[in-house]
Amino acid sequence: MDCPTCEAMVEPYLDGELPAGESVRFEAALEACPDCRGKLDRLRGLRSLIRELPAERAPDLMRARLERELRAAIPAAAPLVESAPSPTPGSAATPSPRLWSRRSAMAASLLVALGAGWVGGRYTGQDGSRETDELLAGYLRVGLGDRPVDVASSDQHTVKPWFAGRIDYAPPVYDLTSAGFPLLGGRLDVLEGRRIAVLVYRRNQHRLALSLWPATASGDTAPVVSEQDGFAIARWRHAGFELRAIGDIAPKDMSVFAASIDKAMEAGK
Ligand SMILES: [Zn+2]
Questions:
Q1: Which of 1, 190, 201, 238 could disulfide-pair with 29, CB 3.0 to 4.6 Å?
Q2: 169-224 pLDDT per residue, tens
Q3: How far apart are CA 46 and CA 62, in angstroms?
Q4: CA of 30 to the centre of ligand 1 (A)
Q5: 34 Cα to the center of ligand 1, angstroms
Q6: Ligand 1 centroid to 127 CA: how many Å?
Q7: DSSP code of 225?
Q8: Nearest-angstrom CA–CA distance, 95 and 217
Q9: Which domains does the chain have, with CATH numbers?
Q10: Where are the alpha helices (H) located in 96-211, listed in sequence order?
């Protein structure tokens, strides 16, 4: 096995996505490849760090460790500031972005966010920095964590009942495969001290997290999409729920997502 091959297998291996025979081949190849062994160790370390990430603002020490780990996880050749390029057919054939995986793209975005003042100050005064911090921290767990969802299913009739007894409201759950956003499942998170439902969707190779909870204010608001260092965040209120969606996708895709949720909520009433 040559190094580009074993390198390409590091993340699927960590995710448990390699068939058994491939795992054995990969483990054998690792013996002979210190670079890939190092990469595997770094990614493991990064993920355990993310598991420990507090729901609230990360303390400085945690932030410093996270930044170090993120830097190590990013291939040196990868551009740091560009947001994740969307994969195009044939792009796998070009040699330079072979190191450029979804996770390293996300790590780069996060690093930029950290440098720009995530848990710092730049977001202060925009639209509630603590909420943004917590959304980003939650998204880290979805995007980089070992377990993006607590209940994995594209079936709304599986995901919706899973929340019963775990939170004090029933979130509307819709699969949006037909709109290009397949439902991956659901998870619990904490936002401003409250336990909330998070639905995880996929857009091509990217993940989106939709947090929703019962609104205290009345009336619908149109989704407002902002872009922050490679992440698109949508905020809106619809059919009695406050909705926040975050993902490393283009703002226009986020607008489509929000509109699709609204449409599904209307149809599901
Ligand atoms: Zn290798």
A1: 1
A2: 999 999 999 999 999 999 988 777 788 999 999 998 788 999 999 999 999 999 99
A3: 12
A4: 7
A5: 7
A6: 44
A7: E
A8: 52
A9: 1-32 (no CATH), 132-268 (3.30.200.100)
A10: 102-116, 129-144, 156-162
